[in-house]
Amino acid sequence: MVKLLERLGHTVEFPAGQTCCGQMHYNTGYQLEAMPLVQRFVDQFREAEAVVVPSSSCVAMMKDHYPKMAASFKDEKLMAEVDALLPRVFEFSEFLTRRLGLEDVGAYYPHRVTYHASCHGLRNLELGDGPLRLLKAVRGIDLVPLEGLEQCCGFGGTFAIKNAEVSSAMLSEKTTAVLNTGAEACTACDNSCLMHIQGALHRQRTGVKTVHLAEILAGDEGAQR
Amino acid sequence: MSGVALDPKTSPTFPMAAKTALGDTQMRKNVRHATDVIQAKRARVVAEMPDWQQLREAGKQIRQHTMEHLDFYLEQFEENCTRAGGVVHWARDAQEARRIVTGLVKASGSEEVIKIKSMTTEEIHLNDVLETAGIHAYETDLAELIIQLGEDQPSHIVVPALHKNRQQIREIFQRKMNLPGLGETPQDLADAARVFLREKFLRVKTGVSGANFLIAETGGVCIVESEGNGRMCLTLPETLITIAGIDKVVPRFQDLEVLLQLLPRSATGERMNPYNSIWTGVKQGDGPQTFHVVLMDNARTEILADKEGRQTLNCIRCGACQNACPVYRQTGGQAYGSVYAGPIGAILTPQLQELHHAQSLPFASSLCGACYEVCPVKINIPEVLIHLRAKVVNQNTAGIAGLFDFEAAAMTAMAMIFKSERRFRAAQRLGRMAEIPLVRKDRQGVGWIRWLPGMLGGWTQARDLQEMPKETFRDWWEKRGKNGN
Question: Which CATH number fits domain B25-302: 3.60.15.10, 3.30.70.1730, 3.40.30.10, 3.40.50.10420?
Fold first, then answer.
């Protein structure tokens, strides 16, 4: 992501104090534990012109829950800061397509790839076909459609552990769809889905890998993989 | 599955029940097929509505407004229904509702009742209660009849027998209707049910129904159905007893314009239900001459008091969330241990139990949001699930027990780590050291974890986990900075 953003002429900074958006705590029922992370996020990023996040579910966490978390503190300053910062927070593909208005980012990736639409990107952030348009513009790519592309892969954070059997059954449907495409790699905008899908693809010795969308878009003629 | 009533008080936890359900490949195939068919039909009839999103918003507003003034509209319904010749009863809980209905059936002088499919009667297990009181209830909805004759339990709020295929249904009918030569076409099965039921419609003097909507403005009750069995039950008996949750009320007759567009398209993928019945009180010489309505609370008032949970009551029982849910589609409905299964069940059931039972249900979701997307009245189910998870965690970690809760301890530790950059860095280093005994290199030299201990072992049942990178993004970034990039 850094490589691509710099190639596009942007200055990238990485505030060292950042840690976690708090999604795992919040979604598992430990909402008090997630609270301090709202203030932390604002402290780390309030100066940024744009905050680009390579994970759709983290962005969904911030956009869907930070305002009401800040409101629950009854901290007006924090509420105002959250409201001011959130419009400048973008999921990575969203930043490219909506903020920069790009589709062709000059990428080269000569591989057969299929795209999985992560739930939070699809339904919470309404990314639509943005990531697919970015992929279609990649040179050399053989993009194949994934059956049931909008179906959850079964990760769901702690769901994958608390309901491991059901999660695995959902995952098995996803990996079957991936394998049916004959793709070398499955891509998405969310590392957690990719970690989950990759876990099964590796366990089953399929030889199919997962790559984040940013890795594909950062590819160029000089850096074949 | 079994004839044991689906009761959250006695059911196994969702992960346990799901494990069993996942082994039933025939059931999973049936559920998959049925939900695929209904979802495709729904998608077609929703796509043809240019104002679907506005309709959803209107539906939400109607339901939300009703809940905000529920006391007013309930009393208005009572007044208008009474004026039209109905008798209104109030039931605080399931126990009271059962007692009232049993008493009313007995007073009608009948030892049998014919029933229209009703989730509210399922919620209070009315059939079992009536049976104990010496009253036999005949389910007249085809799917409910299949469940009843098969000594089974419902697995869906609209199509309760969707976990059975035609061959299985034929087997039940052959056995219970004594029709050894019965065929397996839909026509054969429907004909058999028709003959079996027709005699009941004409003989039994007392009917029991639920309600889709109670209309406050007129005192009328509305039921929509597809088979005509409802119309029979509403017109032929001498006594009609309707039982409905207090959440079923709508303010005006006109509100049905919105709700009767949303409901059939979402539920069965039909533009309109084949039968839409609305009856208001008693009409001399036409239809039931005695008409009772039992308005049941059964924890709905508690749900209404919870600011974040109350949108649950907006539900119009279409079942679209069940068809769309990837969890439900794997396990079927009975794994939820409640007559309300799927996403709506995962939020409704625990709240109906005031969170004392069914605590695993709010966690029976990957929060993918497919349910919210299809909900005709825009109930934000993922939001309510998260809200209930917090309540469950609070209950379970209160007091001494919380000190010994592994999950809570891990969550607290991680919260501490996320609060400090120094601890975060240390944790990354520590993680790399801690995983060393578990990591095995593959041929490409990449390290993978194939087994994890304890709770985390859920992950490695079916998945590997790549080792943590030797160089984190943070390390790479800082090294790059030093090199003057």
Answer: 3.40.50.10420
